[in-house]
Amino acid sequence: MDYRATHQSLQHLTDSNWARFCPRCGCGLEERYIEAEQHLRKICSACGFIFYLNPKVVAGAVPRQGDSIWLVRRSVEPASGHWTFPGGYVDLGESVTEAAIRETHEETRLDIRLDGLLNIYSYSNAANVLVVYRATVIGGVAGVTPESREVRAFHIDEIPWSSLAFPSTREALSDYIKLEMSAREPR
Ligand SMILES: [Zn+2]
Questions:
Q1: pLDDT digit string (tens) for 7-55?
Q2: CATH of 11-51, one of 2.20.70, 3.30.160, 3.10.620, 1.10.3470
Q3: Which terminal CB of the chain, N or C, has fewer other CB atoms within 10 Å?
Q4: What is the CATH code of the structural domain delimited by 56-184?
Q5: Which residues have a beta carbon within 5 Å of ligand 1, which is an ion?
Q6: Angle at 128 between CA 137 and CA 179, to 5 degrees
Q7: Residue 76: how many other CB atoms lie within 10 Å
């Protein structure tokens, strides 16, 4: 999976023409102000179902091998041709950590072990919340996949900062490097 909606305009989600029918009964949704929630919501005119618009959770990992990290060059829009760490939407029925491991394998063919949370990346103008882990490669052979036209290990001094996919990619990799640098400093 990809980050389709990450940092794209939220306008399509708040457009009144988007999500016009109730997913429960198929009748029309109408916009109504809910006093108790102080929010305009889409509500089914027939069954009362409230169609909440919430961000989706994306799980990502920065897979490390020696002094390098593995990045993927996207082959799907948005940001096709740009580099990011592997990641994708969490499916119902799996945990965020399971999704990070699965997505990494789907996008790089590498097996990883998670080493802890890097950080959570959430923006008021983005449709996704990213949960990103530090990881170590423990197996597999890197290879291209339908979603990644190139899979490459970059020395942490050679990260392609000018062709990263998303603002969150830049922010997460900056955090990663800061963490690495502080771990190297003598205490
Ligand atoms: Zn309904």
A1: 455 666 666 677 889 999 999 999 999 898 898 999 999 999 999 989 9
A2: 2.20.70
A3: C
A4: 3.90.79.10
A5: 22, 24-25, 27, 44, 46-47, 49
A6: 40
A7: 15
